[in-house]
Amino acid sequence: MSKELMNGKDFTSEFDPKEAAEFKIHAILCYLGIFFIIALIVGKDSKFCKFHVNQGIVLFILVLIGSVISTVLSFVLAVIGLGFIGWLLSSVVGLYALANLVYAAININQGKSKQLPIIGNIRILK
Fold this sequence. Notes:
By secondary structure, the chain is mostly helical. It has one domain. It contains six helices and no strands. It has helices spanning 3-7, 17-22, 24-29, 36-42, 47-78, 83-109. Helix 5 (47-78) packs antiparallel against helix 6 (83-109). The two termini are 26 Å apart.
């Protein structure tokens, strides 16, 4: 995989530093599941918030889909005694979400706006 895909493209220069400081907490909330809605409402006119809301929505959808798949797999594979595979998949999904939360929170706290690794280039909001 390319370095840019794994590290996430840096968009820090595209945002006003004062706006980034003002909406720092809201940006971090975007990566805590459904809490991206708070930033979407409060920062509806903020380009900085919209960037992080988009990243949060993509992560939320990915984790939701991964959770559903791992749950179904757990039940199906439990019938043949391999339910632990679903548990492992669920653990990987949870660790991926946690790693992205930490990555985003560190970057936001440092005043940076970077895409999430691997999924960051997906756009839902314009």
